[in-house]
Every structure is written in structure tokens, then in C-alpha cells.
Design brief:
alpha/beta, globular, Rossmann fold, two-stranded antiparallel ribbon, single chain
Amino acid sequence: MKSVLVIQHMEAEYLGLIEDHLESRNIGFRYVRPFANQGWVPPRAEAEDALFLLGAGPWGVRSAPLLASLEQELKLTRYFLEGGRPVIGFGQGAQILALAAGGGVEARELHFRVTRARRAADAALGGFLPETFPQIIYMRDQPVPPTDAEVLAEDEEGNPALFQIAGNCLGFLGHPGIKSAMIEDCVMEFEDSPDNVAAGLAALRAVQHDVAAALSQIMIGLVRITGLMGAAASAPPEAPG
């Protein structure tokens, strides 16, 4: 049975619709919550086959308020990258992946957008990435993929909506398995929120079915390129710290 380590940055956000897809493929996952432990130390992860980095809502990777566990998560992400194991980032998770792989992060105010992304190459995710798919973004700042990353999809402004690094790592600008309740809980959890929350939630509810339909295709491609349905990962290098 494959196992995924999931870094959760706030109570409100979790894997959402992705959980069912992992469970149906007999892929285990465990959540780790740095925000619940001051002085957090990354767990030993030799037995984990992949790392998933969730979004962080109002927390920033470049702009204040900064994510408190950023340095430790960068170290953990580089550990997975050096071992050739997959890293999947959503929102700020994609920012952490970009930084760890040699890219960057642009400062941007907290924003909530419900748009559509368009596939940049027919072979993206092994041909399983839909031509267009909903993109739900609730985050601060924006990832800048490293120069050797492959852009698999772009948003309506021409920014990378999905990028691939080292063949088996993916950075999603939005959360492909999001539920509207996750945004609602985030708004209740933090005082800082965008001005367009009500309109954004209405737009999200209108495309929730499309989110689920697109995710079914995305997950087929994701598990294939990450090897999460294949043979066990090779022995990783010594754990950090």
C-alpha cells in the first residue's frame, strides 16, 4: 500500500474530493499539522511515497503574515525532491515546491478567484488533463516555477496554472479537489479575507460539479506520473535533521 504525507496549514483546508480518489486506489494518507505545534519539526518520512503540500489561506510564503513553518517545509520538500519522490503542491504548497526546486514566489495580496485554466499541451498528465477545467484560488502570493519546469496549463491571464517538475512533481495554482465549505470555514477561521467572498462562493457552487468531473481525469494522470499505483519507491536518502 502506498502512503502519502499531507502537510496541512490550517483547520479549514484538507484534501477534499481528492481523499475519495486516493482511498479508492488503496493509497493511504496521513495529515501533519505544523500550525498546531509551535517549534514544529518535520516528521521522519522515509516510508512515505509522496508529499502533498496544501494551501494556507491568508498565510504568505513571501508576504506577511508569513507561514511559520516555511523553512522546515522547504527542507522537507527538498528531501523528497533529492530522493526522486513526488511532491504535489496546491496554492501555497505550489509556492513551496517552486522555491524548493529553484523557482520563486511573487508577492500578491490575498485573493479569491473562480476561473478556468486551459491545457497547454495535449500530452499533459499523460493525456488525461482536461482541455479546460475550473481553477479555484484562495491564497496570498503566487508561485514562479523554475526555468526547467514544464507548464501543463495556463490561467486566463497566461500565468502557469499547473506546472510539472522533475517528471513526477506537480504544482497547482488552485486546489483541484476543493469544496465550497472549505472556503467558508477559512473565512470563519481568520479575520483576514478577500472582499469578494460572497460572489466567489456563489461562483464556486455553480461549478462544483465541474470541479468533481475534472478531478476524476486529473487524478488518473496524477497517480500515473507519480507512480502511486506502481512499484514501491526506491530507498530514500537519510532523513533531514
